Amino acid sequence: MPTEYVPDGSTEADEHSRQSITANTRPTERVPTAVPDDETPAAWCPHCARPFATERLCALHLGDRHRDEWTANQRDRYESAYDDESNELFIFHLKVISALVGVFFAFTYTYAFVWS
Amino acid sequence: MVTDRPVRPEGTRYLICVVLWLCSVWLFVGSAVAATGSVDLSSEPAPVPRWLVVSTGGGVIGASFLITSFVTDRETIRSVTAPQWSVPAWLLSPPVGSAIRLSSVVVLGVVVGGTVGTSSAISAFALLLVWSGWWAGYTMSVYLVGNTWPTLNPWRTIASVIAGWVSVDRSLPNWLDVWPSVGGLLGLVWLTMVTPLRTSPRLLAVVTVAYSLFTVAGGVVYGAPWFRHVDPISRLFRAYGRVAPFRRTSSGLTLTVPGSELTEGEARGEPTFIIAVLWVTTYDGLVSTPLWRELVETIGAVGVPVAMVYALGMGGGFGAFLLAYRTGTQHARRIGRTYITAQTIELRFARSLLPIAASYHFAHYLGSVLGVVALLTGILSQLFGGPIPVPSRPSWFGHAQLLSILCGHLLAVWVAHTTAFDLFTGRFQSIRSQYPFILMMIAYTMIGMWIVLHPSAQPPFVL
Ligand SMILES: [Zn+2]
Q1: In the prediction, which pLDDT does B30 show?
Q2: A114 to chain B, minimum CA–CA distance in Å?
Q3: Could you tell me the residue ranges of all domains in chain B?
Q4: What is the ipTM of this complex?
């Protein structure tokens, strides 16, 4: 949003950018990155040269940010990375459900114990 | 519109998840019924011990994070905070703005005049206007409705009028960074604690005049950037205003979903200032707990001046909060395995703490605002010949306090979720990198609830 003079004398408006919420993909955006000295990135994004700690993160990034410019090969990499991640997420969500059940039970019985 | 990769053969998986969800809900409801069934309902239920309320607060935050972790579709997450509506522009017409600005300067004059004056009734009214009306009530309107301070700020109006006559146009030195505003905020709140600023009209007049001279001078020399970066009060309201649904844009006024502006970040030390806001709201409550009283008395017995204890507590607590936040950011970076700089992560997650600070302010000052409302209705009823009602705290008071704290934290959890999915790559990294922030929020909820649940004693004054 360009900085415009706001009639009431304040310029508060210029910094209210809602880009990240309204824009779907931001291929031109450069997120500042820094690689620790004792690490070597496993992959760099072919479009924006952003470093990644694993190949999979790089492939996922292609789908997050570069859908308009990716090659068929990159698309395949993204899809297989997405499926891998889905498998991991499924296991993770099973753990989350058990944690939630555990928390609910712990509190229910504590309250039952306190109130009786 | 491209969306995330569509779910292909995962129907069965989600069926399993749904079935497990239903089972757990059924188990939960069943056990709750069984538990309440074993309680003798004819007798008054025993009050819940404080430790249990506090840990329930932490548990609710943790559970809400676990539940949000099921929402992993970026499109869905964005759509929650995306809606916005514009508001008719005539509300912002120049005459209205000028009238508001003029009346705020008049109010400032009334406050200073009233506190200097000899009439005790008028000076009591001025005190009430400043502390319950402005510091408590107006601040609430800023985070519940919108930041009207750039227009209302009487010092800004005066400074802009003077700047029209004398033109001193300097730019703010960069080395100042965020520190003048942080120091100013901590200093002002410290002043309200160690001096009888809240009860002595004379002292309030002195401080107001000193602050006015300083602020108007700064505003004349440095212009708008002064109120944006240096003046602690303007900056405080700007931070709180980020939570509010209404906001000023270059095209007018916009109504948005509360919290939709919190996933962004602004350079120039915004995280540090937000941590300072969070700490002063906490400290404000902490000093009225019995624990603090004991601490002050113990240290005071050694011969350390009480004002010094307050200053050390203020600085030390702020340092501890800042350190905790920075450490959390480093952990988020490591756990999520991301190369995004710690500075960027710090910047983007800082505003998720603002709803927490706002809810905590609400819980802390609700009593004083209700007191003013009761007083005003009492005066009105007396004017019309009615009886003077006895002001008393409504029965829902404690619940409203705890509820506001919970709402603030729940909004914060969602904001952190949205920010993480916007900033990080993939779904798993976005979830895992939230762990440190959620742990901090759980810890903070428990501290905050513990403070609110304490009977608020008058903090030990120095005088
Ligand atoms: Zn890229």
Answers
A1: 62
A2: 7
A3: 42-453
A4: 0.81
